[in-house]
Amino acid sequence: MTGHDQAMSVSYQRLADRNSQASGFSSEERAALRKYILDHNGMLFFDYCGDGGNEKSFATLVETELRTVFPEYPMKTLDDMRHEIFQCYFKLKKTPVGGSTFWGTGYKGGNEKWRHIKGISVPGRLGKPRLAVVFCPLDYLCSMETAEVDSRAPLAARRSSDVYRFMTNMFIYQMRQRANNN
Known about the structure:
Helix content: 25-40%
Number of strands: 4
Strand content: 5-15%
């Protein structure tokens, strides 16, 4: 899920224009998301992609909705590199730098305002916490683009092999969670 997706950003703007920001997801959508995460061992990856505009509003809406859907499971910063998501396949030494490093720099890079990934952990197998929501303000999806986008930094400057490693780790982490729960 990303706030950069034009359809999602436009949909959020329509909610805002109708003065219905507080409504966010419907009660059915909240129940379905909760069921997917808790009953079906699902995982949600949210990449806050963009510097302002509708993306920031959408990120705020998602964070608010996650607090509503999972009031008993707080969102916490994943700043301990020993967390399994950073170590399960590739051994990452630090949180990868994403496309956010280019926000507000004229696409020259160097912005390190956003450094941490947040997450929501829920009970997993044998009572061990399971990371079920990854809330990433680092714009990893733009770091993984394979086609040049107008008005953006050249891909070679934006691409980060550690982002690919993190995304691979996230996939493997989730697959292990699902395999061990069946």
